[in-house]
Amino acid sequence: MSEAGHKFLAKLGKKRLRPGGKRATDWLIAEGGFSKEKRILEVACNRGTTAIELAQRFGCKITAVDMDAQALEVAEKSAETAGVGHLISFERANAMKLPYEDASFDIVINEAMLTMQADQAKKKCVMEYLRVLKPEGLLLTHDVLLKEAKESVRQELSQAIHVNVGPLTQDGWEQVMIESGYCDVKVLTGEMTLMKLSGMIYDEGWLGTLKICVNACKKENRKQFLTMYKMFDKNKKNLGFIAMASHKSQIVR
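Now predict its structure.
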């Protein structure tokens, strides 16, 4: 039985499970102005790659949430191994109903999760992030970009990764943020690098990429890997990534 695409790639050894890979995440981090004094929330942290990197680089305290208990267990072990377990609190929580008080965080970071939500659910999530952000707080997001609004591409992507996804165009993503109450939305777009060889090498290094390729060639993995690879290659001109830095107004309404 085929697995959800991100879980399948993680099983193969891929650590960067985002459409724009390390390039997009690095841009978000640069936009964030992270420091030890800021309180950070990462929603859909998965196995904790970004949270661990932030804790290592800036010494900031991070609350990292996900609905996948197994991924959180892996994340906790990885954080302890990296020596930052004391800085990161991994918790199971629903993005649409976060268990935190209003204006609790300086930054909310959410990568490759909104794509998996229906349009109204996207707004519900980002409005919940707005609620827990402090005035002048910052939402950092990273998602799949549709170059053109083609339903056929969305369907092919959903079938290939076994998750019903709803990527948007750049205008569509920006509209979600503005309509949800954010301002000063800054955007970076680029090509999808998730399964591109050069992107894998950039994200995972040569040894990491070799490990992924060896695992992908195993009989039990080959069919799903090739299905995903062919879909992304076929639609490389139609799919990309979008990273956004969206601000909460300093005026609380």
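The first strand starts at residue 39 and ends at 43.
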